[in-house]
Amino acid sequence: METAEGAEPTALTEEQREIRRTLRELLDQHTGPPAARPATPAPEGYDPALWARMSGELGLARLALPEEYGGAGRGTPELALACEEAGRALAASPLLATSVLTAPLVAALGTPAQRAALLPRIADGGLTCALAAPGGSLAHALGLTGDNTTGAWAGDGRAGGIQARPAPEGAPGGWLLYGEAEQVLDGHSAGLLLVAAHTGGFARSRTLLYLVRAEEAGPGLVRTRHPGLDPTRSPATVQLRDVPAELLGEDPADPADVTRALATAGRTAAVLLAAEATGAARGALERALGHVTTREHSGRAAGTLHGARHRLADLHVQVEAARSLTYCAAREPGPGPESGPLALAQALEALRAAAGEAVPPHDTDRYGRRAAADELLFGPAGRLRARAAERTGLLGEAAA
Where do the segments described as Disordered lie (predicted)? Predict the structure, then answer.
C-alpha cells in the first residue's frame, strides 16, 4: 500500500511538483504533527507569519488570479495542489475564505476599478476576505446543496436576511447594509467582506453582492468569532447595522447573473474543498499507517496488525478514488455542474472514514473535527449528490 508520497492520479508538471514540494516543506516546518500543536489558535484564527510566507514567499494567494492584477494566472489544478497540502497538514489559513470563496467572485463580477483596487492586494496576501451569506447556509448560497436562484437561502427579501438600501447622497459606497450572516468563515478578521444582500423591496427584490471594507465600516459592523467544531476553521457571526457598502460590479440587467456567478464559483470551490478534504484524509492515513508500522516493529500480535493493514488498504483505495475524482474535476474546463460536488461528496466520506483510523486518539479528534466541520459547512455528502442528480435530471420531475 502506498502512502501520500506514492503514485499521482494524473501526471504533474515540474512546476506543479515544485508547488507541492515547497508547500509541504513549509507546512511541515511550521505546523508539525497535529498532536504537537497548541490548542488555542491565534486571534486571527491562523498564524499570520505562516500566511505571510504562504502568500508572499510561495505566492499561493496569487496562484489563480489574472496576471494583469498581480496574479500568477494558473488554474484550478495548481490551486488544488495547494489546498491538498494545506488539508494534509490541517493548516489554518485564509486560503479557503480568501482565494477559494471570495477572490474569484471579485474577479468575475467586479468593475475594472474594483478589480484594480482589490485583486493586487489579495494577490500579495495583504488583504484577506470572507464571503458572508445570510441564512447560515454557504453551501446553498453557492448552489451546492440547493437551488440558489429562488432566493430562499437569503430570505426572499422578507424579514430577516440582509437588506441593502441606497445611502444618503454623498455617503461613502452608495449603499447601507442591515442584517446578519452566520457561519462566515474568517468573518471576524477579514479585511474585506463580500456580502450577499437583498435590494429593491419585496416587489422587485433581488440578491446582489456588496463590498464592505472593514476599516471603513464604522461601529455598525459587529463581528463575533465562535468556537467551531474544528479549531482550524473560524466561523463568525457578522452583524451589519447601516454599514456603508459598495455594489460589486454594475447592477445587472438580469438579477440571475449574480446567482449564476455564485453557482459557478461554488462548482470550482467544491473541487478545491475536495482537494483539501482528500489531503486531510491522506494525512490521517499516513499517521495510521505509521502507527501500525511502529507496532509491527515492537512485536505486537500479528493477527491484530494483519486486520489493521487490511482496513488501511481498503481505506487507501477509498481515499485515492476520491483524489482521482478530484483532479479529474480540477482539469475539466468549467468545471462541469456536477463533477465538483460529486468529488466533494466522495472526499468528505473518505475523510470521515480516515478520521476513524487516525491515531493516537488526539489525532482522531483533530481529523474527526475537520470531517464534521466540513460536512456541516459544505455537505452533507448525500445532499451534494442529490443536488448533482437534480441538475443532471437523474431524479426526473420528482426532484423539481
Answer: 27-46
Q: Is the pLDDT of residue 390 over 80?
A: yes
> Could you report the per-residue pLDDT of 253-285, keeping only the tens digit for each?
888 899 999 999 999 999 999 999 999 999 999
CA-to-CA separations, 345 to 133, 156, 278, 299, 388, in angstroms, rounded: 22, 28, 11, 39, 10
Span 207-259, pLDDT tens digits: 999 999 999 999 999 999 998 889 899 899 999 999 999 999 998 888 889 99
CATH number for the domain including 297? 1.20.140.10
Residues 228 and 266 in one domain: no
Judged by DSSP in three states, 175 sits in: strand
* Total residue count of the chain as it appears in this document: 400
Query: Could you give the CA distance from residue 115 to residue 118 in angstroms, rounded to a whole number?
Result: 5
Number of structural domains, the chain?
A: 3
- Could you give the CA distance from residue 168 to residue 109 in angstroms, rounded to a whole number? 25
Residue type, 200: G
**Cβ of 24: how many Cβ atoms within 10 Å?**
18
Mean pLDDT over 127-153 rounds to 88
Which residue spans within 57-202 are E strands per DSSP?
Answer: 129-132, 162-166, 174-185, 192-199
Overall average pLDDT of the 143-166 stretch: 78
3-state secondary structure (DSSP) of residue 364: helix
3-class state of residue 206 by DSSP: strand
Find, among 110, 100, 155, 162, the residue nearest to 131 by Cα.
Answer: 100
- Look at phi and psi of residue 347 and say left if phi exceeds 0, alpha if psi is from -120 to 50, else beta: alpha
Are 347 and 239 within one domain? no
SS3 201: coil
The three cell numbers locating residue 172 = 461613502
